[in-house]
Write a structure and sequence with these properties.
Elements lengths: L1 H20 L3 E2 L15 E2 L4 E5 L4 E10 L2 E12 L11 E7 L8 E6 L3 E3 L5 E5 L2 E2 L6 E3 L11 E4 L10 E6 L4 E4 L3 E3 L12 E7 L7 E5 L5 E3 L3 E6 L3 E3 L5 E3 L12 E3 L13 H4 L9 E3 L6 E3 L3 E5 L2 E3 L4 E3 L1 E2 L7 E4 L6 E2 L3 E6 L9 E5 L5 E2 L17 E7 L11 E6 L4 E4 L3 E3 L12 E5 L1 E3 L8 E3 L5 E3 L3 E6 L8 E7 L2 E2 L9 E2 L1 H5 L9 E2 L3
Parallel strand pairs: 45-46
Antiparallel strand pairs: 1-2, 3-4, 4-5, 6-7, 7-9, 8-11, 9-10, 12-13, 13-15, 14-16, 16-18, 17-19, 19-21, 20-22, 23-25, 24-27, 25-26, 28-30, 29-31, 31-32, 32-33, 34-35, 35-37, 36-38, 39-41, 40-42, 42-43, 43-44
Length: about 525
């Protein structure tokens, strides 16, 4: 039995060895970084394979399959391809904008220094398989355009080939002219001059002094071109010379009027319809002077007093023509053309519309007070109802209903008995549509003051200073004036209807002798 067992075990060993020696290696087990995939899925035992790096990387690996495992016998780790320095550009700089070093995939960007500009179309370089792409950009010096001047201006400096930082200085040929613009300009980094070439123009110099001048418009400007204007505001008692407020610079560099200030003074208002102007406006007529005045016939004073100001006499005008405005004529039409105003003694005619009186044309005249005289209202024969304030109609004949025709009578009273009544209590409608009296009015309170006559003889039931209309006051006579013990007064329309009626009592001698009237201060009858 031992021999067969040994033979069996030996056979199993040989089979095991044969199986291990024939095991394959898988391509997916190769996991080096930055490498390209191998071609085959699997490789036989003993087979070798070269593993190349990805594009942009250098190095390789050489492996051998042995017993199902990969054995590395050559290993050059895959690392990014280096491009070296990208290259300097004169008058420029560069910086990495992608990547950390000059290896595959890195990108650098070039910029020119101030005063230089790039002539190359592309300003970047990238590290590729064969090295840096594109060319090193070129920076050239910035140049500003040629300076051209006319015969009035001289320019000093590099006017033909100005470069960054160059300064051009300008001056006027004629001393009578001033530069309109900057006297110096410089070439900027973008190849443009900092300002235009100035011109030499005619100017006027504004010379003002304080405190006479408090402001000029435009504010602070002292040099003006031909055709430009300046306004001057003088202070206090000063005004602009020759009553000018604005001045123009002329083509010869002179002001049309000399812009100065002097003490303000008003002229005598001649030809302004002032009555005796030289009489009323004599003496000191400086700023602030005041004058009372009158106007000529047909004109009215705008104010009682004229005042001298920087703008002359105020009010303006001093005198205005007295005029009548268009008359207000309800239910009428003016005959002929109408005007917005009418002078004194102007006459116009108007006619009442059909159904209104009077039927004949009416002529009215504008009087010296500016009022129309002779106006007759156009009415339809009825009297107009008017506003009732603190008053009411007590009685109406023939009725209180509208319309109020000729012969209609209204009787009024105050709504409050304590109010005073002013006017006629009864009014009548006339045939021409007018009331024979104006509507009456009520206002103010009707009161009686406390009676003062013989007040020392009485005692009042209600001691007040004022009493309402129709209020009753009761009084008692004091001794010895108590022949009539008590009395009554009534307040009627602001007056008492009587006075205190107290008389001294009369006693006979007999009563006095028997002492029955002791302490009564009565006089003894003469009888």
């Amino acid at each position: 039995m031992r021999v067969p067992v040994q033979i069996f075990l030996f056979s199993c060993f040989l089979f095991s060895v044969t199986f291990v020696q024939g095991q394959e290696c898988l391509g997916e087990d190769i996991t080096y970084e930055n490498t390209q995939p191998v071609v085959n899925v699997s490789y036989a035992d003993g087979e070798t394979v070269k593993v190349n790096c990805m594009t942009g990387y250098i190095g390789f690996y050489k492996l051998k399959c042995k017993n199902g495992q990969w054995l590395t016998f050559i290993a050059q780790r895959c690392s990014k391809k280096k491009c070296g320095h990208p290259g300097e550009t004169p008058n420029g700089d560069f910086k990495l904008i992608e990547g950390r070093d000059y290896t595959y995939g890195a990108t650098v960007e070039y910029t020119c220094k101030t005063g230089y500009e790039m002539t190359s179309r592309i300003n970047q370089r990238q590290c590729r398989i064969k090295g840096w792409d594109n060319s090193v950009p070129v920076c050239v010096e910035v140049r500003c355009p040629v300076i051209h001047t006319d015969g009035d201006v001289t320019a000093s400096g590099n006017t033909k080939e100005g470069t960054y930082g160059d300064v051009i200085h300008f001056e006027c040929v004629s001393s009578d002219k001033k530069l309109d613009g900057n006297s110096n300009i410089h070439c900027m980094e973008n190849g443009v001059w900092s300002g235009p070439v100035p011109q030499c123009i005619v100017t006027c110099q504004l010379e003002v002094t304080e405190p006479e001048v408090i402001r000029t418009i435009p504010l602070g400007k002292t040099v003006f071109k031909a055709g430009e204007m300046v306004a001057i505001i003088c202070s206090g008692k000063n005004q602009v010379f020759s009553k000018q407020e604005t001045f123009a610079c002329t083509n010869n560099g002179k002001w049309d009027y000399k812009p100065t200030c002097k003490e303000s003074r008003c002229e005598v208002p001649i030809n302004q319809h002032v009555y005796l102007p030289k009489y009323y406006f004599s003496g000191d007529l400086n700023l602030g002077a005041k004058r009372s005045y009158s106007c000529e016939s047909g004109y009215r004073e705008i104010a009682a007093v004229a005042t001298c100001t920087r703008d002359g006499w105020t009010p303006k005008p001093l005198c205005a023509e007295i005029m009548c405005g268009p008359p207000r004529l309800p239910n009428a039409e003016i005959v002929g053309p109408q005007r917005p105003s009418y002078g004194i003694n102007s006459r116009i005619q108007y006619k009442c519309r059909p159904g209104f009186e009077p039927e004949e044309p009416v002529q009215i005249t504008c009087n010296p007070q500016g009022q129309w005289t002779g106006i007759q209202q156009c009415t339809d024969g009825t009297c107009q109802e008017q506003e009732l304030k603190n008053i009411e109609i007590l009685f109406a004949y023939p009725s209180i209903a509208l319309p109020y025709t000729p012969g209609h009578i209204l009787v009024f009273r105050c709504t409050d008995n304590n109010m005073r009544f002013y006017g006629q209590r009864a009014i009548e409608c006339l045939p021409d549509g007018r009331w024979n009296y104006p509507y009456p009015q009520c206002g103010g309170k009707v009161q009686c003051s406390q009676p003062t006559k013989n007040l020392q003889f009485v005692t009042l039931s209600d001691d007040k200073t004022e009493y309402s209309n129709f209020e009753i006051l009761t009084y008692t006579c004091n001794k010895p004036y108590n022949e009539i013990p008590r009395g009554v007064l009534m307040c009627q329309n602001g007056k008492w209807n009587g006075t205190f009626d107290c008389k001294i009592c009369a006693l006979d001698k007999k009563k006095i002798t028997h002492s029955s009237w002791l302490n009564n201060f009565c006089s003894i009858n003469k009888d």
